[in-house]
């Protein structure tokens, strides 16, 4: 077996900085050089900035045509076929006409292809965002129960609704652009993986319950606010006698086709070159049957209605609603960005490339802002189509071009043919598209085994979203997650370290019973930050381990005063010409007062103290003063630069010798032992 032998000088922080630290002047020069480099502008810098902010200029010239083009074409066309029914279906969740779902499946796809960094990310309509946006739309423009779909009032009503939905997309895009400008891509990290998974899983229940009325052919108002899921479910149960049997039959037939075929696509996706496009097949058959047998007029089935051909005219969203939608849009923005970045990172790690979170903010910000001018509602990366894009063999963002071409053909030519498409079919597509979200429950056993706290975060978020509401539940989940982090830092453990024999390795004696404590030295480590929130817990832990009780401090203070008194008497005796041979020094006399094995030095390992605030630093200094009162010397080791700076600025050096702050625990232990044996030697060495 290999071995390690080291022979070197003992390093305090001061000595190590003198030997290996950076000179202050050089640091200033480097800062000046960096600032000058940032402020410079050249053709190379401009080209680099263009490639960074418009990634298509970077990857398109490097595109391997023969190797990648076939995969991108097949994957793009497959995703485009899926986008058509899902776009129209998710438009119903947003409480707007289906054609706006097609618009949202076109414009964001093109824009993300230009500005996005995820090679396998498919953007467009997403069920959770559509549900959240639909809640905002229903609050501001509620559905009147008696409304003739062919009347002029209905057209005005639809214009108001898409105006609000577009305003949400516009404001969400502006927020993302501002976050990009301030480099706030890290904010998505506050939506941890358990929160995102629990939130999307719970939102799937809201989507399913909200689609029951369309699947049963009921005309019911859409509930918003707290307990909306139970209100909607109660309303559906109350109106079950009014179910349209024809729409119920259509829904059951669609589910009987969609569910098994989607299961086949999932289980045999490695064998299938492309997934079976069951959604578009179902849409075409249902539209043809409804038209052939006049089901809309015979059985009063709700149909999609007129879908205008061509592009929408650019127009401003309903910006007057911005004050009313601002709070909800914050949640929509964070959820959309968190889901998009999470998906992009998953597939980037899988295929060995990297993404830029701040560039993703820019890409989705531009997508939402520009798309909102063409009557689109909020968009993001989508779970189902991203999975299809990757499994169908897509290589780059160019697949988005072929996806948008499919949607463009539908918008220009085929859209009006979906006039007779039953809304019940779109509701079934919505429900069956949530399969992946419901399967997130499979993660719970592993989560329980790995981390009980993350399991509780998952459970609290899920229950909050289901019981209360999507927005409020998400807020509760984030707050609970942050509180769990705070509680973990507050309850950080303080442990005693022991040395492994004949090594420089120190470990907790609670978990390593063969490690021994260094005689006369108590080595402590605190596994967390020291700040205002946990300073009382830190003090309690340290007091317990060191035995710093008020009684002990008073007893030691009395002993020290007695020593000082005897020292003064001895000096007086010497001045009178009589020597007291029974005492040589204060330290010798004090040692006679200290029982054998008593702690004479405390070494605090600060390697796990990642930061310290002013309150923590003052408490730290107070602990040093209390140790000094009982005659115990304090030593520090492994302090990072920020912690050492805070301690120094708070006046620690008034109570501790700067030469008692060491680079490692072993440096400090060897120094203490050598000082005890040979206090006159200053140039000590470490041998391991």
UniProtKB/TrEMBL annotation:
GO terms for cellular component: membrane. It is a multi-pass membrane protein. Gene3D superfamilies: STAS domain. Residues 511-672 form the STAS domain. Pfam families: STAS, Sulfate_transp. It comes from the Eukaryota. GO terms for biological process: transmembrane transport. This is Solute carrier family 26 member 10. Keywords: Membrane, Transmembrane, Transmembrane helix. It is found in: Membrane.
């Amino acid at each position: 077996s290999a071995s390690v032998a080291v022979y070197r000088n003992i390093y305090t922080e001061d000595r190590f900085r003198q030997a290996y630290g950076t000179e202050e002047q050089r640091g200033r020069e480097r800062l000046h050089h960096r600032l000058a480099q940032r402020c410079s502008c050249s053709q190379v810098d401009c080209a680099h900035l263009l490639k960074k902010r418009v990634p298509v200029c970077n990857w398109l010239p490097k595109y391997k045509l023969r190797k990648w083009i076939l995969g991108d074409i097949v994957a793009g066309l497959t995703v485009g076929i899926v986008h058509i029914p899902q776009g129209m279906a998710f438009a119903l969740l947003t409480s707007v006409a289906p054609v706006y779902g097609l618009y949202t499946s076109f414009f964001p796809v093109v824009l993300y292809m230009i500005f996005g960094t995820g090679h396998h990310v498919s953007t467009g309509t997403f069920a959770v965002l559509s549900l959240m946006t639909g809640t905002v739309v229903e609050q501001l423009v509620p559905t009147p129960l008696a409304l003739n779909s062919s009347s002029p009032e209905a057209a005005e009503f639809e214009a108001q609704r898409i105006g609000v939905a577009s305003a949400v997309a516009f404001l969400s895009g502006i927020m993302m652009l501002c976050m990009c400008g301030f480099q706030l891509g890290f904010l998505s990290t506050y939506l941890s993986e358990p929160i995102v998974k629990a939130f999307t899983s719970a939102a799937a229940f809201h989507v399913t319950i909200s689609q029951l009325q369309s699947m049963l052919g009921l005309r019911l108002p859409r509930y918003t606010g707290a307990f909306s899921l139970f209100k909607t479910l109660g309303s559906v149960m109350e109106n079950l006698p009014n179910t349209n049997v024809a729409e119920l039959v259509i829904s059951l037939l669609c589910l009987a086709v969609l569910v098994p075929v989607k299961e086949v696509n999932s289980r045999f996706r490695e064998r299938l070159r492309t997934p079976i496009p069951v959604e578009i097949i179902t849409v075409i058959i249902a539209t043809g049957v409804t038209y052939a047998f006049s089901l809309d007029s015979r059985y009063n089935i709700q149909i999609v209605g007129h879908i205008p051909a061509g592009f929408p005219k650019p127009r401003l969203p309903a910006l007057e609603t911005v004050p009313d939608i601002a709070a909800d849009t914050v949640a929509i923005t964070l959820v959309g960005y968190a889901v998009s970045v999470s998906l992009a990172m998953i597939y980037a790690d899988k295929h060995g490339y990297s993404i830029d979170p701040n560039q993703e903010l820019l890409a989705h910000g531009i997508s939402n802002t520009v798309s909102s001018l063409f009557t689109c509602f909020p968009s993001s990366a989508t779970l189902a189509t991203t999975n299809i894009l990757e499994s169908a063999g897509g290589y780059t963002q160019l697949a988005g071009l072929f996806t948008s071409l499919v949607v463009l053909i539908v918008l220009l030519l085929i859209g009006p043919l979906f006039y007779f498409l039953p809304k019940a079919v779109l509701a079934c597509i919505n429900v069956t598209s949530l399969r992946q979200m419901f399967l997130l429950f499979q993660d719970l056993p592993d989560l329980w085994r790995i981390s009980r706290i993350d399991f509780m975060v998952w459970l609290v978020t899920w229950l909050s979203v289901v019981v209360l509401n999507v927005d409020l539940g998400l807020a509760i989940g984030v707050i609970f997650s942050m509180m769990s982090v705070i509680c973990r830092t507050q309850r950080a453990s303080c442990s005693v370290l022991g040395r492994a024999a004949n090594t420089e390795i120190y470990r907790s004696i609670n978990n390593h019973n063969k490690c021994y404590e260094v005689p006369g030295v108590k080595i402590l480590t605190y596994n967390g930050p020291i700040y205002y929130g946990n300073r009382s817990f830190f003090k309690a832990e340290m007091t317990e381990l060191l035995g710093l009780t008020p009684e002990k401090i008073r007893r030691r203070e009395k002993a020290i005063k007695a020593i000082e008194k005897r020292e003064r008497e001895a000096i007086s005796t010497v001045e009178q010409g009589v020597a007291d041979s029974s005492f040589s020094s204060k330290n010798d006399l004090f040692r006679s007062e200290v029982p054998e094995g008593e702690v004479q030095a405390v070494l605090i390992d600060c390697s796990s103290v990642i930061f310290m605030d002013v309150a923590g630093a003052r408490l730290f200094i107070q602990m040093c003063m209390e140790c000094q009162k009982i005659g115990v010397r304090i030593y520090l080791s492994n302090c990072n630069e920020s912690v050492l700076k805070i301690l120094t600025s708070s006046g620690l050096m008034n109570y501790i010798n700067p030469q008692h702050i060491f680079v490692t625990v072993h440096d400090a232990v060897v120094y203490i032992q050598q000082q005890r044996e040979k206090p006159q030697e200053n140039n000590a060495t470490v041998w391991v």
